[in-house]
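Same chain as my last thread, 242 residues:
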Amino acid sequence: MMKKLSLWLGLVAILLAFNLSSFASDINLGISLGDGKLRSFYFSLSDYYRIPEEQIIIIKKRYPIIVEEELPVILLIVREAGVSPDVIVELRRKGYSWYDILIRFRIYPEVVFKRYIIYGPPYGKAWGYHKKKKVVFVDDDIIFLSNVKFLSEYYREVPDVVIKYKEKHPRFVDVHYEIYEHKKGEREKFKEKEEKEFRERDREQRDYRDSKDYMNQKDKDFYNEKEGKGPKEKHRGKKEKD
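reply #2:
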């Protein structure tokens, strides 16, 4: 009996060690990522969709068929439909389009992307194709709109600005990095401006303390206090007269 129990415990330990090793390997992928653009992209996705960054990295490693630009699509469906990424990727493997997968989980592109579907110049485009009096969005459309939605909402940029960045860069990873760097620069400028204003206020206060007006006011206050003519004393004297 003890021998069987020992064998069983040993088997469990081996399985646990294997799973932990695999998980650690997945996590190490995130730590060893040398591409700063990719790291910042994963971090922003994690922050926006409220999902651990490690989980995003695991999705990417586990399913090489998924490219970075498709991650916002997957995470959008996970958030809206409450399904596992594995279920979504399995449907993708079976040949379902992103549009079909969205509709399957009752996520309607014309609703969820309403703010980001821009028609007409300068940034408008023809979306999808018409089928039975409705627009069917192709994969590129869904990927494009998911990324524009993510970047616009996360960085609080108008869609036109994000689309304009996309005209300069082929990948949304690069678009994200440029917006990220731009926002970072704005934050640094704002911080520098605040520090400069603080230093100026501090200098003005020090200059005033060193000025004759300040010293004269101090002398007056000291004299009034000595003669019993401070604000409280004056008020008390007035009451006594009354």
